[in-house]
Description:
By secondary structure, the protein is mostly helical.
Amino acid sequence: MKDKKKLLNQIFKFIIVGGIATIIDWIIxxxxxxxxxxxxxxxxxxxxxxxxxxxxxxxxxxxFVVSKxxxxxxxxxxxxxxxxxxxxxxxxxxxxxxxxxxxxSLISKIISTAIVMVFNFITRKIFLEx
Length: 130
């Protein structure tokens, strides 16, 4: 029961941190793509990267119980590596949805975000915690 409560609390914190990171990501994506007419894939790289910095700091400090055995540099490298995989997954999803299925770029970004959020929680839980 205690483990289930701990996991639910962690998921709640992840959703809050992820929600804020998502808002940062979407605002930057919208500004770059819709206001400055920058390609959606390039806009996604910039917005994802900026939200990644926030997400790393908040996740390590508040969401995950990071292994004491790993040094901070290694934790950051693992976090960035997992995030890059998430970015590539996001890019692939947006490319398929926008270029192949002709779905609006903002709707595609929402779909991509939902899928990558699940990927991020699972991989960070596995690789960052003991």
